[in-house]
Amino acid sequence: MIFGGALTAVSTKKAGRPTWLYQLSKAGKLCVPAMNVNDSVTKQKFDNLYCCRESILDGLKRTTDVMFGGKQVVVCGYGEVGKGCCSALKAMGAIVCITEIDPICALQGCMDGFRVVKLNEVIRQMDIVITCTGNKNVVTREQLDRIKNGCIVCNMGHSNTEIDVASLRSPELTWERVRSQVDHVIWPDGKRVILLAEGRLLNLSCSTVPTFVLSITATTQALALIELFNAPEGRYKQDVYLLPKKMDEYVASLHMPNFDAHLTELSDEQAKYMGLNKNGPFKPNYYRY
What we know:
The chain is of the alpha/beta class and 289 residues long. It contains ten helices and 13 strands. Keywords: NAD, One-carbon metabolism.
């Protein structure tokens, strides 16, 4: 946000967690207050979970016209994006397993009916490999060498770092562009791996993002900047902050009329019993939706 010709505050929303902001803050190099919109509830749930639940199918269909029923799929990462992808693919009849480093997310996957595996142990059997971790080199060249002919490899997680695409730019491999955003990477023995969007984000490169979701995330960003701009001097230091819970709830309430949804209102007695303000916020900051 620019005021009087100077950068006074920033809100950030991007693919993957904004770890760079926290790194700048830890190093004492963050020159303005920053609002981490990416980790707000409305962004995490509606963009990461519900939007990706639809865009994974859209992106794969547009690029490959694959039929999902009976396909062996591994989803790397069971955060909100991974949960959305797994839910959609399972509903279409795919046989889905997941990889995870976090025991809590892994246990959630087990309880949702997904087998938790190590990628190295299943890579040869997979028809589709999807990364959703926010990390780098999740799918390595050694794993790509072992992948079966015709496997579809794509990224739903973060930038173009999750699949080691650079290692595929080698003399022994041939790249064949078969249509926009679809490359066949051909090994010397004739094996073809179908790489989508050159490892970039599938949902941003190969499918549409519904305006409803864009409205939610844009509203969240706008409110974050308004909060930073209107805050009394000294409330926000040169650090990274999460969106106040009240604002998260307000963003959600603004979008409820799209569904003709009506909130139940607490009585004075109920609000007192729960120790809440009748107008919110309704959950503590530590609450996990």
